[in-house]
């Protein structure tokens, strides 16, 4: 792994309308020269939070508030946006799943942008910004032309797009679960519904504050946030609402599925009970009658009758037939 | 099918107070000349989204934002309204059902209007705007006289009117379902309640944002939206609220029906249990007594008694009668 | 019936501080002369909506918006208030019950008022405004002195007062239902709770928008709505809230009653099960023992014992006594 | 009882910083002289609403709006605050319990205050304002120094303080109920939970609008309500919120208790079922085996075997032992 | 214990940028001299509320409103913030747990701050402010440099940080409870879920108003609250929201766990019922057949057949096999 090198090496993209340069720098001090060139913007990606010393240096160069650095390091920080005079700070959560919906991971991505720089802090080195790098290479890309707020929007957009993938996976899983419950296969366990609900709560927990961030962004009057780029932010905002509505739909579906499961249990129990009742109700009285003629009283006139045994069989048959008719009428089988 | 021709041929209605002309054009460039004549308004209907090239050309002629074209093409776009300096963009969902409430289809209809043009984008060629065409032919119609915002309102109104049809169908289906549950016919399956709930969620999902769109429209201060036409928009807005309230009513009804179904299951189980208990409680003790006198002990004085057998029958009768009285008093049958 | 005459004859009350005249006019054109006399106000009641021609004429005389006429004719219109420059339009729902709470009827009453006129449109001829007529005859009545907005308020007030009657009826019905559930009489069926809930939803559906109308009225700045009369509107507004709170209370009560019903079913089932279990658990082992000594093995020493039979009875008694003690301790009977 | 005298005799407290005089007047007209002395304030307590004539006179002297008198007389009036140019009108509900929480009574107390007078209307003569009288006698009391709004605040405060007593009683009752459910004593009946819920709804119904009144008071800009006294109103406002939160807590607790009760019913039923199943599953097969050897076939070789009977006992023992092991493993007893 | 001395001895920290002095004073009058030195700030900690005389003196020195002293003494006061011209008063609740989550204690901490002083009132002497003392000793600490509002923020922050500890403990307990339910160990009792819910409600009850306080603080325009320190308050505010969201998540989890528990009870009951039904359904008919041939009729031809007994065994075997196949198909075991 080149994790070690990636800690000490920073990837810096310096760009302008007709300019793009990628540099790998090892000394954070070099960033001072980038900051000075106001006609160019640059993006620094810090791929992991392990090198606290580096973070300290970066924080000093860009004049980042100590509480912000604290928030960046606290990877269970709730997503939020905070405005300072010279820069804006955004915490977001990236969701990704390894294989199945059960292994959803949340990772914190923090963003700081000023008038000519964007800094992104990843929790662990991931390739989430590959799409961004590709778009940046395109000289006609809006990422080069529009301000740092557009650039930050593009980073958030690429994060939010991943939520759709997760939601899609989740929808499939729930639909599959629903099919199994309706088909009444025993393979579906109650715990799986319970686990889906838990996962859902976790996803919602990450998504909700992102909607809030974008809502605050839209209403912000900070000079770094330009009116003309708001159409783009509205777009991600709509996406975040769409995802939340999708999650809410799934929540209701799961709650209905749990209810459906419960009702099916009751239906099954009813069926079991009916079987027991039908069999018991038919045979317990018959057994009683056969018991009567198993008694050893000396004086039992029926026992001597020639057709006694036949008659008893007749009684048995009539009783069985009667019971069957009765249960048929009650719709019990 | 004339789908192919419909892709390349655009239906254009040019109209004014005392003028109506329908043209079929094949080259989108011809639209430039329409745009120029500011004293006339025109409506272009694009019946399907398959010809991306055409969309591109139209987008350039009318100066439509790239994100708008993206939203038009993404047919799972959430309904929304977006205002630009020179035009307003609206996404709506049309609902229609083939035969039963189970086969509800949602189709996206996007609308763009400027000072003298209205463009409508359908997902697939459907005859939803036939009513509009008819009204347009009437020289006294408000569609000719009032602005493009009224025209757009009329298009949305004709879409929202279809929701009433769906709601009516849904109400009938739920009422039918309710009747069957109360009459306790076994034909109604739990899955049907579950499916109605699912369909309801889907309809609500489409309707909710339409209410939002109309609410934003009412509050909008965009110059394309004229104060004097707001009475009409208020009307559709009221309709959307009415539909949502109708859906909410159905949601509550379905949730109560599910509860009713559960309770009826319990009542049935109680009945089954009572049958079992009554029969068992009567005959199990009797069987025990008959078992006693079936024992083969050498010394069993009762067996030699002359009226032993008769007495046993007396015991049987008294016990049965006692049980019946007891269960009658307990209201068990 | 004089329905036919009532269609073509309009009842017009012309009034001022010291003046009251009731006229029956047949030609709507006569209303023009009333409109002209600004120093007097007048009230026209249109008792049914069957004569569309009449409505058309009235609408032209009073310059009523076509959408308003549409709303008046659509008797499933949601209650609403709409302000125009020269008049205000209000749709309300009147509720009345024939005998029991099950037969609640909703009827639409639409009101239009301008600076010196009030028009009321009833769905069918009903005597709901008799109280109004009485008050009008009193020369000191505020109805004569205060503006047309007060008059409209008085009409709405007389409609809302009927809601209290309905709520009272409903409370009685629910309380009765509650008594029966707690006393556990079998006569109360689950469907009645279900039906009360349904009725409740229907009443709420009509009441909710009336509260909204009154809330809008209070905030309105329309010149026809006078500040000094707001105390009266606040009063009806408070009433509408009181009714809604009463309905909400009933909704919660009904939901608790349904739960109570369910729990009582479980309690009853527990009781049934206990009876079955007690009887079975006592007699099944006894039957087994009697079965043992009913076997026909040649070598069964107990059978020859002199006190065998007595001992078996002893065993029976000990077992029965033990079981009874056990079940008593478990509180099972 | 001196109820009769109390109807015709009014208790009037006239007070200023260094002055306090209590008068009993019989003719309401005497109040005119009090009204004139602007340098002094006075409080009139009307202890019951039975003398409508008196109310009429008082209403004329203090220029009280007819609707206010109507609200005072309607003892099921929802608590509210209404501002007039020259006075403010407040309706509140006093709650008190005789002995247990089940006998909660609500009584209406209406308050009207102007620049130098406070009038309180009680539904029935109660001693709720004894504390107020005591404080008034203290020459340093704020009640004498601060305005009539403070005096009214003090009256409301003494009413709200009673709510704490009720809440305390209620908490104790619910806690007691909870203990009994957890200890699973049969003495607690389902109806008591149901009744607590009902009582709770009733208390909440009275408390909620009081919070609203105080919230409106805080925001009011009426000249009778002085900014500097708002700290006191904030205090009662906080109290009303605290009481509502306490009620909400109890509501959730009761709803959980009902659920707990239901679950315990299920647990008990499970236990009953297990007993039945264990006994039946053990003895029914044994009875069958004993039945086999009770058959009277002529050719049944086992019956002649010397150790046949012993072997059957062996089979019995093995089967019983096997079953017990099986049920132990299943944790069924 | 030095509780007695701590009552009469007050700990006073006087501090400035380059100054820190800790004094123990016994006479509250000494505080006057501190109040006079406006260039220094000071913090007084009053470790318990037992000495009312002391509180009275302090209240006079700092001109604290009598209602504030009342709130400080009433240790069940709901957390709140109240602004006065010269000072701000904050009530908070400190939560701490002895060992397990069941023993959560809430203790009231009240704070009063003016332009150069901060007074903290503890319910009982606890060491919660040790961290504060440590930070104060650091000459570079912001606590010395920034205003009294920052100091108060720091005190609240140290209190809110304890909530995270409680939340963590709670999460662990719930997770443990969830594991046990899913693994279906009988050790978990229903009461523990019930108790967790109760504890949760209690924690939420304390946390909710703290969020409110911080929200009011953020919006406050009081001169004692400085704009530039708002970043810090935003931070605690975010923390309070995070804690509330964590509690809400736990609430939903517990409610799902209760549902899961109920469903597992049903599943277990189904299993019990199936066992009973399978055994009964197999053996009851067999017992009946054996009963038939135990009858003592003189004429029973089967009994004389040579292979009668064998045939009966055949019938038994066929019936058992048939039943087993049937139940296997029904998935009953």
From TrEMBL, chains A, B, C, D, E:
Entries under InterPro entries matching the protein: CorA_cytoplasmic_dom (IPR045861), CorA_TM1_TM2 (IPR045863), Mg/Co-transport_prot_CorA (IPR004488), MgTranspt_CorA/ZnTranspt_ZntB (IPR002523)
Main location: membrane
One protein family per Pfam: CorA
GO CC annotations, alphabetized: plasma membrane
Molecular function GO terms recorded: cobalt ion binding; cobalt ion transmembrane transporter activity; magnesium ion binding; magnesium ion transmembrane transporter activity
Membrane topology: Multi-pass membrane protein
TM ranges: 276-295, 307-327
Reaction(s) catalysed by this chain's protein: Mg(2+)(in) = Mg(2+)(out)
Record's keyword annotation contains Transmembrane: yes
Family annotation (CDD domains): TmCorA-like_1 (cd12828)
Subcellular location: Cell membrane; Membrane
Keywords: Cell membrane, Ion transport, Magnesium, Membrane, Transmembrane, Transmembrane helix, Transport
Keyword check for Transferase: no
Protein family: Belongs to the CorA metal ion transporter (MIT) (TC 1.A.35) family.
PANTHER family xrefs: CORA FAMILY METAL ION TRANSPORTER (EUROFUNG)
Functional note: Mediates influx of magnesium ions. Alternates between open and closed states. Activated by low cytoplasmic Mg(2+) levels. Inactive when cytoplasmic Mg(2+) levels are high.
Record's protein name: Magnesium transport protein CorA
Organism: Echinicola pacifica
Lineage, broadest ranks: Bacteria, Pseudomonadati, Bacteroidota, Cytophagia, Cytophagales
Encoding gene, per UniProt annotation: corA
């Amino acid at each position: 792994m080149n994790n070690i090198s990636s800690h000490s090496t920073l990837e810096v993209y310096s760009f302008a309308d007709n300019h793009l340069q990628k540099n790998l720098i090892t000394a954070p001090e070099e960033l001072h020269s980038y900051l000075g060139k106001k006609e160019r913007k640059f993006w620094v990606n810090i791929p992991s939070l392990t090198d606290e010393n580096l973070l300290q240096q970066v924080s000093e160069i860009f004049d980042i508030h100590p509480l912000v650095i604290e928030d960046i390091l606290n990877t269970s920080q709730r997503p939020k946006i905070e405005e300072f005079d010279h820069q804006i700070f955004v915490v977001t959560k990236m969701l990704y799943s390894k294989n199945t919906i059960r292994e959803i991971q949340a990772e914190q991505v923090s963003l700081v942008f000023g008038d000519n720089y964007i800094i992104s802090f990843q929790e662990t080195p991931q390739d989430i910004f590959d799409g961004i790098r590709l778009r940046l290479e395109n000289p006609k890309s809006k990422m080069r032309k529009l301000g740092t707020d557009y650039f930050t929007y593009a980073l958030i957009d690429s994060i939010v797009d991943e939520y759709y993938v997760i939601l899609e996976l989740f929808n499939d899983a729930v639909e599959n679960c629903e099919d199994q419950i309706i088909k009444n296969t025993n393979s579906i366990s109650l715990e799986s519904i319970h686990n889906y609900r838990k996962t859902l709560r976790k996803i919602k927990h990450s998504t909700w504050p992102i909607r809030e961030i974008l809502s605050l962004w839209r209403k912000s009057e900070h000079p770094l946030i330009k009116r003309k780029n708001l159409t783009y932010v509205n777009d991600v905002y709509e996406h975040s609402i769409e995802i939340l509505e999708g999650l809410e739909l799934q929540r209701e579906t799961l709650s209905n599925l749990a209810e459906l499961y419960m009702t099916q249990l009751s239906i099954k129990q009813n069926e079991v009970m009916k079987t027991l009742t039908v069999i018991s109700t038919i045979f317990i009285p018959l057994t009683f009658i056969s018991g009567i003629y198993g008694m050893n009283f000396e004086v039992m006139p029926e026992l001597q009758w020639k057709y006694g045994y036949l008659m008893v069989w007749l009684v048995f048959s009539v009783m069985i037939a009667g019971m069957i008719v009765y249960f048929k009428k009650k719709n019990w089988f």
